[in-house]
Amino acid sequence: MNGRLVRLAETARAPVAFTFDGxxxxxxxxxxxxxxxxLSRRGLRQAEFGPEPRAGFCLMGACQDCWIWQExxxxxxxxxxxxxxxxRLLSQAPQGWPESAA
Amino acid sequence: MTRVLIVGAGPAGIRAAEWxxxxxxxxxxxxxxxxxxxxxxxxxxxxxxxxxxxxxxSEAGKAVALHQTFDRMVAERRVDHHPRSSVVALxxxxxxxxxxxxxxxxxxxxxxxxxxxxxxxxxxxxWQGAGVYSxxxxxxxxxxxxVALGRRIVLAGSGPLLTLLASQLIAAGAEVGAVLDTAPMxxxxxxxLTMALARPxxxxxxxxxxxxxxxxxxxxxxxxxxxxxxxxxxxxHWRDAQGRGQVTPCDMVGLGWHxxxxxxxxxxxxxxxxxxxxxxxxxxxxxxxxxxxxGVYLAGDGLRILGADGAELAGxxxxxxxxxDLGLPIPPSGPELRRLRRMQRFAAxxxxxxxxxxxxxxxxxxxxxxxxCEGVTAGxxxxxxxxxxxxxxxxxxxxxxxxGRCQGRYCQLAGAEVMxxxxxxxxxxxxxxxxxxxxxxxxxxxxxxx
Lengths: 102, 450
Ligand code: FES
Fold this sequence. Notes:
The complex is a heterodimer.
Chain A: E1 6-7, E2 15-20, E3 23-28, H1 33-38, E4 45-46, E5 53-54, E6 67-70, E7 76-77, E8 88-90
Chain B: E1 4-7, H1 11-22, E2 28-30, H2 52-56, H3 60-75, E3 80-82, E4 86-91, E5 94-98, E6 103-107, E7 110-113, E8 117-119, E9 132-134, H4 135-145, E10 147-148, E11 153-158, H5 160-172, E12 176-181, H6 185-198, H7 200-213, E13 217-218, E14 222-229, E15 232-239, E16 245-249, E17 252-257, E18 259-261, H8 264-268, E19 273-276, E20 281-284, E21 291-293, E22 296-298, H9 307-325, H10 334-353, H11 358-362, E23 369-371, E24 376-377, H12 378-388, H13 392-399, H14 412-423, H15 444-448
Helix pairs in contact in B: 1-3, 1-9, 4-5, 5-7, 6-7, 6-10, 9-10, 12-13, 12-14
Bound molecules: FE2/S2 (inorganic) cluster (FES).
């Protein structure tokens, strides 16, 4: 409910289930990871150099503000990665990162 | 056969590919998008249903023509298309291409850079938090995802995208609380006359769009700060043209002042860059056709910021220059060059009508975050100056402005402006940040598995 984004169009798409920080969320097929998370949440991650949360800035792969983690696998740029069913996304590095990343 | 590598599949890259294919070449096209089209004619993912008229308005015909041209070349195997891929480095005739999995190397004999542009952004106190986006981001969200980036949106900055985006958001059902243009009305009138002479149709469309915004639109404003709560903006504080303080509640702020050419690859390819007073940024140097020398050609907003129509023309011209240098026959380019010059006059007038807010940036309070990546403030940069002297690259080494992961794309101009004001010089005297590979962050594993 408390999401930052609002859907204005293209709502008749198949749902896609994923988790963010362990919580089950649902996006739609064709959503980017950024879209899917921010429809339910206010931010993607905490800034490393300040107290504020971050939620992307350019949405075109230029600012690198939207990198987040997965429970397994490499980090990803949320604005330019398509949501896939079963993704387990994290706002912070998992335990043991970066050694655990492939 | 000569291997030509085209970087970027927006209007410039697509037209360049088309002309090379027509001459019998088989270019390789590397593009960051999942589907070709670029930013302004960006296509939504497969399965989305809004028609082109809804997505691209009056430009729908041009967008569809470009998409079809490219899709046909791919279907007929006349181009080698690498979508979702970034050229991250250029060395010894090879491009290092970061795809979804790993880095591969693609050799080339000629290189056409059609890397486009992104928003030119000026810092506003509070802009580092969640819920502040570039104007381009808001447009991408609407076009390619069908979402608004907030429930109550305030747009601020200057340039054609400001009013265009506001109209698009309102038409799509988003709530826009204010459209704040830092360009004073008298400058707009003066530049607007020259714009109307060069491209009357485009100028009139812009004016009509502005008129429909009515009381939401304010010219000649000053931006004071973005007030934020724990998780994002709650209001934008600004001053109207009479200097009266105003507060507009919002949960999203969009910022942008025209475009900034994406020049990192041109820099790595050895193309000289020079400060351009009209466009207020460093731009690559090439001849009228886009020929930069050494087998490198440039086209589109990454060379001259003329927008999509100019990019299509420039793509064709760069391809012609490349073919000519290969000793192949080309049609005369006179008419295209004349059209391009008219677009340049228009673009220059537009820059002067809707200028970069130099004074606002020079006067940024010390606590303003200048570098969003690493939270370096204007005050910290001013302090660094004592050690670094007025030199952007030294200030970057010592104060980290431009060192973060956007590699200076969103702080270089503001940083130069702040330093220059402190020592009483023009911003170009601070020098240009040298481009460094990789031009996008690359996981080490992407190189190791290769
Ligand atoms: S939001 Fe800028 S790179 Fe993703």
